[in-house]
């Protein structure tokens, strides 16, 4: 196993007082003024945040986590919601120069999946991507494996330090299925149903389609779609 060490990050992980949020400042925008909590510092995954700040801005969270967890050592990264991401909860795009050194990252989180989950799941998804940023910016990415030994080691340290449940892949299968609101059903013998999150009908551009034409020969008829804006966009 390859090893690496980031002093600022390591020191913060070993100090539990630096893994908490204070309800003052940016975190207090949804705090009830007439009933403030007695203890104003909480773990980053404390259930109270589900009430105090249920829908945080991912960019603000990135900046805060960079400061309190990573000692401000991570680079400036653009963090945004993605309305098109419907299979994974997040992704970290990184750019490398000709020497293989990291020259930039950006993070996208799935709006459609994570809005159906708890705030804690969003936080853990963001931290997952921030580990990728850490490994990229310190040139410690695992060769040929995005979730190799260095990633797993860092993930384990985070989980042990904060009580988080950062994982290699998510298990939000129900949420992934829930966003598949465009349905097509074959009118041929197979009667297969294709479900997708986007309005993209089955076509010959897909590898399996030719085999379907040869073995079934039926046509896919749309049987379900979201109401409102999605339908209007399709007609324009």
Descriptive report:
The chain is of the alpha+beta class and 236 residues long. It folds into 2 domains: 167 residues, no CATH class; 56 residues, no CATH class. Helix content is 35%, strand content 17%. The protein has 9 helices and 8 strands. The chain has a 3-stranded mixed β-sheet. A 3-stranded antiparallel β-sheet has the order 7-6-8, with no helix packed on it. A two-stranded antiparallel sheet has the order 1-2. Strand 6 and strand 7 form a beta hairpin. Helix 3 packs across helix 5 and helix 5 crosses helix 6. It is found in: Nucleus. Its main location: nucleus. InterPro entries: Spartan, SprT-like_domain, SPRTN_ZBD.
How many distinct domains?
2
Spatial separation of the terminal alpha carbons: 55 Å
C-alpha-based Rg, rounded: 22 Å
Give start-end ranges of low-pLDDT stretches. Answer: 21-39, 230-236
Physical arrangement of strands within the biggest beta sheet: 3-5-4
Query: Which class best fits the helix and strand makeup?
Result: alpha+beta
Principal-axis shape: globular
Order of helices and strands: HEEHHEEEHHHHEEHEH
Figure out the total of helices. Answer: 9
Beta strand count: 8
Oligomeric composition of the shown chains: single chain
**Major beta-sheet overview:** 3 strands, mixed
Quick check: average pLDDT?
Answer: 79
Helical percentage: 25-40%
The proportion of residues in beta strands is 15-25%
Which terms summarize this structure?
236 residues; alpha+beta; 2 domains; three-stranded mixed β-sheet; three-stranded antiparallel β-sheet; 9 helices; 8 strands; 35% helix
């Amino acid at each position: 196993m390859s090893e690496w060490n980031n002093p600022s990050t390591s020191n913060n992980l070993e100090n539990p007082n630096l893994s908490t949020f204070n309800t003052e400042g940016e975190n207090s925008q949804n705090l009830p003024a007439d009933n403030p909590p007695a203890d104003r510092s909480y773990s980053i995954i404390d259930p109270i945040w589900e009430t105090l700040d249920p829908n945080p801005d991912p960019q603000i969270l990135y900046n805060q986590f960079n400061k309190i967890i990573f000692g401000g050592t991570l680079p400036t990264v653009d963090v945004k919601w993605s309305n098109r991401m419907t299979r994974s909860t997040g992704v970290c795009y990184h750019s490398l120069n000709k020497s293989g050194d990291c020259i930039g990252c950006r993070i996208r989180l799935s709006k459609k999946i994570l809005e159906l989950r708890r705030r804690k799941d969003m936080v853990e998804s963001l931290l997952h991507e921030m580990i990728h940023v850490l490994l990229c910016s310190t040139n410690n990415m695992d060769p040929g494996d995005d979730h190799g030994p260095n990633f797993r080691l860092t993930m384990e340290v985070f989980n042990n330090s904060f009580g988080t449940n950062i994982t290699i892949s998510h298990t939000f299968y129900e949420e992934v299925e829930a966003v598949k609101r465009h349905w097509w059903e074959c009118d041929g013998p197979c009667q297969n149903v294709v479900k997708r999150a986007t309005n993209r009908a089955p076509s010959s551009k897909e590898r399996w389609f030719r085999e379907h034409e040869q073995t079934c020969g039926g046509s896919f008829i749309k049987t379900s779609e979201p109401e409102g804006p999605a339908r209007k966009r399709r007609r324009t």
